[in-house]
Write a structure and sequence with these properties.
The structure holds 2 protein chains of 2 kinds.
Chain A lengths: L1 E4 L9 H5 L5 E3 L5 E3 L10 H5 L5 E3 L11 H7 L4 H5 L18 H10 L1
Antiparallel strand pairs in A: 1-4, 2-3
Chain B lengths: L2 E10 L3 H12 L4 E4 L24 H12 L8 H14 L11 E2 L3 E2 L6 H14 L3 E3 L4 E7 L4 E7 L7 E11 L19 H8 L4 E2 L7 E5 L14 E4 L14 H10 L2 E4 L5 H10 L5 H6 L8 E7 L8 E2 L13 E3 L7 H4 L5 H27 L7 E3 L15 H16 L2 H4 L4 H21 L6 H26 L23 E4 L5 E4 L22 H4 L6 H4 L1 H7 L1
Parallel strand pairs in B: 1-2, 1-8, 2-5, 8-15
Antiparallel strand pairs in B: 3-4, 6-7, 6-16, 7-8, 9-14, 9-17, 10-13, 11-12, 12-13, 17-18
Helix pairs in contact in B: 1-4, 1-10, 2-3, 3-10, 5-14, 11-13, 11-14, 13-14
The chains are: A alpha+beta, B alpha+beta.
Chain lengths: ~110, ~575
Amino acid sequence: MIELVVDDRCTRCDTCIQVCPTNVFERGAGGLPLIARQEDCQTCFLCELYCQADALYVAPNCDEPVAVDAASIVASGLLGQFRRHSGWHEWEGDPAHANLHWRMGELFARARAG
Amino acid sequence: MSLHLETDVLIIGGGLAGCWAAVAAARAGAEVVLADKGYCGTSGVTATAGPNHWWVPPDPEKRAQAVRDRDARAFGLADPRWMARIIDTTWRVLPTLADYYRHSVTAGGVPHYQSLRGPEYLRALRRYAETLGVRILDHSPALELLLHVDGSVAGARGLRRQGEGGDWTVRAAGVVVATGGCAFLSKLLGSRTNTGDGHLMAAEAGARLSGMEFSTYHTVAERHSTQTRSASYAFADYFDADGRQIDTGGSPDVTVPLARALLAGPVYATLARMPADLRAILPQIQPAILLPFQRQGIDPFTQRFPITLHGEGTVRGTGGLRLVDDDCQTDVPGLYAAGDAATRELIAGATSGGGAQNSAWAVSSGTWSGQAAARLARAQGRRAHQGVEAAGGAGLRPDAGALKDAAALTRHLTDGVRAEMLPYDKILFRRGPVLAQSLATLDSLWRDARDRLAPGSDPTARVRAREAAALVACARWTTATALARGETRGLHRREDAPSLSPDLAHRLLSGGLDTVWVRADDPTQRSPAQRSPTQRSPAQRSPAQRSPAQRSPAQRSPAQRSNVA
């Protein structure tokens, strides 16, 4: 579930508030998004994908909230990883992150072939 | 501030099917409003996935063979004509997205149309719909349908959770329900909003359902994660707590052996068999699949990690709203169902359509229903000044004294549904007496929802209350149909009736609100929707509408009608 909005990265663009499919966020004081309905978070990571400031962190646990340490998350390099691997925004056109989704069928075919 | 709109076509739901319906209606010249419970672009299970589509070139032999192969696995409940229709429509419609989606170009310079990444796919569909002038209402869940006095659909009403807030009312000549399947609040990726709202709204208006027993599909994921992206698990080996490998029978369908093992204790998996070259490009194939592993410091290729199975309910099951014609119209005139909200028995029978067939279905049923709704608007006009009635009941207008603590009752209802609809032993290994007990429990929950659930004015509470009522309704239709099908067929497994019964080689319809019913689908029976709306007398309306208990006095009052007219 969504656990963290990194204050000094957030640009107050409201995008996460708008794109969250389960309406988890509220606009807080000064425009910083608040995690207002964490229990509705479906751990889909799509807010991270849309966040060009890499200010959001979704913990992988969908069953219960977990404590996260903001400083170590920021230091971990995990922020923005989904966006980068997806080739969105400034990563668009980067051959290292080209969309190879069309090779999905190969996973099944090679698994079957052993 | 309340919002009142008049339009030709209203689409409820902005996932894969709803977007294609909006695009089709707009391309047919209709004015279109699309109301999404969340954000059109991230809503629905496809936005979190990466769908392939059933993709067969227009070679008559190849297409006939594809239909024959699939029909052979449908346990006699599919319709080859509908399969051929979706293959053809998907082939023609999907490439029209090319201006909005950057398709990969494979060897020979041919764009790879059929397999798309979910977030990019839905983002592209939103742009496509907006370019065509579709008015999108985000974070605007529909709560109930509006009906003309002849029983045909007149629009819908809901609320807005962002911006100015307030309620919305949209009057439309045709309405497409594209609210997705019902996943019973499992942790299936992207399914939090898939609570069967459209099923309930349509049933209140008189629609029937079909195939609700085929709702047992499950998908594997890392234990506490939502990542039900199963492709990588084609390379998985599974182990119990003592390190003994679990025999999955060599079949790609690992659900039953894994569920048995999970009922006995923890189960672990490793993806060690995935070749190094595929591991290296996995983030470029499925960028989200590794996130949960990396964030927990798990190397899934060398380590064993705990897994679970998430139930999909009717999402990759095949049940949903029954369709009465090639336009995907439901029993309610002017009300169409598209995507996972509709029954997919027509194309998949008793076996899951999986991702590719269901995506082709969403594209095709969305396209047909959008086109049909646009035609209806052209033919009969909007009828926007005729009086209408609101069709909603449970969770909106309690019949008896409302409980003060609506939040507690809502939680009680959703917890109760989850307790009946998620345990593997109740869903995957069904038994008559257990189903009967579940149904009694769910009937009792329905009475609570109908009589006592009044959420007040808080938008979140109103949505949750209505979701709870829808979950209970879908759980009852599913359980009652599973009880009636005393055999094992495709996705539906009965431990107490483990073989096919020739007496049950037909589809099962279900419906009803206060009293749930199940009966054999008789294809020769003339459906109410095949009559024109004006020929439809009150006596011909659905049992739900005839029942006096169904409608509260408030709903019938002139004041109520003037509110929504």
